[in-house]
Each structure stands twice: as C-alpha cells, then as structure tokens.
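Recall from the previous lesson that a structure prediction takes nothing but the amino acid sequence as input. Here we apply that procedure to C-type lectin domain-containing protein from Fundulus heteroclitus. The sequence below is the only information supplied.
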Amino acid sequence: MGLHSKTFTTKLFAFKCDSYYNKKCLPLLLCVGLLLFFYAHILQYFAKLYLLQCHLNSVDLNETCLKCGAGWELHGGNCYNFNTMKSSWNESRDSCKYLGGDLVKIDSREEQMFLFGRLSNFTVNEQDKFWIGLTDSEEEDRWLWADGSPLNSSLTFWADNQPDNKSLDGAAEADCVRMGKKGGADFLKSWFDTSCNYPQKSICEKAAETGQSSCVYG
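The prediction returns the following tokens.
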C-alpha cells in the first residue's frame, strides 16, 4: 500500500482513500474526530459525577463546623482577637465584650503556646505586651479569671519573680496581668502583673460559632 493510500472502515461502510486530502475522506475524518472529542468529554463528565458521589458518601451533611467572624482566629474550638489598640484592663475587657467575647482565659499549656507564638507577630519591644483576663483586684493574691473562676495554681505561666505587685505607672497596686516576650530558657513563662490602668494591647476570646453543612474541605 502506498504512502498516501489508506482504508477506512466503520460499521456502516468501508472505502479506500487514495490521499489524506481526498474530498471523500475529509468528512469522515472530521466525523471521527468529533465523535472522539464528544466521547472524551462524556467520559470526563461521568468521572466527575463518580468522584462527587464518592465525596458525598464520605461527608455527613449534618456535620457541625466551627467558624469565627472577621478579625478572629480559630484555634481549639475558640476564636481569638488580637487587639493592638492600647487601653486599660477594664477598657480592654469592655472592647472584648462589645465584640461578643471577653479577655482571654488560658486553660492549658497548649493554649499558652499558641498565644505566645501569635504574639510574636504583634510585639515591637519588651514592654509591648497584651492584657489577659486575670486579676486579683477583688482580693490581693487571689487571682481570678474574668469569668470569675479561680486561677489553677498548677497551671500558671508567671515570669521569674512574678507577680511582684509592682506597677509600671507608679500605682500602689499591680492587680492585672499582661503577657508577652521575655528572656530566659522557658519562654512560656510570660505573665507579668502591673497596674490595671497601664495602657496595653489585649487578647479577646469567645467560643467558636457552629453551623451545618458549611465546612470547607481542602
């Protein structure tokens, strides 16, 4: 068979082309090409349907998802807002309440690690620290969280020689707690007491919101 000779066979007919450019061959070639094109797209469509069905079978449509609003960061079922506007402890707490939360309550070493790690993005110098929801303003040395619960003595992260009841602004009492950078081997020990009126940045916390069928899957 010559270089430009070819036989095309279908279920309906068969004939011999003397040339690829034969006018009788071109329509057949176009038809075969179109059929292959549509067949490939049909296969792709059904493959996507199959993958979608597999995904739906693996997802509980009633699954509860956790989410936070704009300006909040989700971590461990709670939302955190790092407020870089400096104000007193009480003013900072009011700001947190306005946003639907309160000054942060630290319940675990893991939470302390998370917060300390995030603060590195917001601190400029050693005195650039953040209010947390811990105070002994009601009774000296009786430390309470903002929600009224007592501080767990086995879960504290006081810096060395803290609390020392010394205020940065010369106030008689240092009844509120801030956290931030410090030197030393144990970087988690980063709580300091100072006057509640000394302007500081702050960390707000609130429970994450829940919703159904709103998860984002990577």
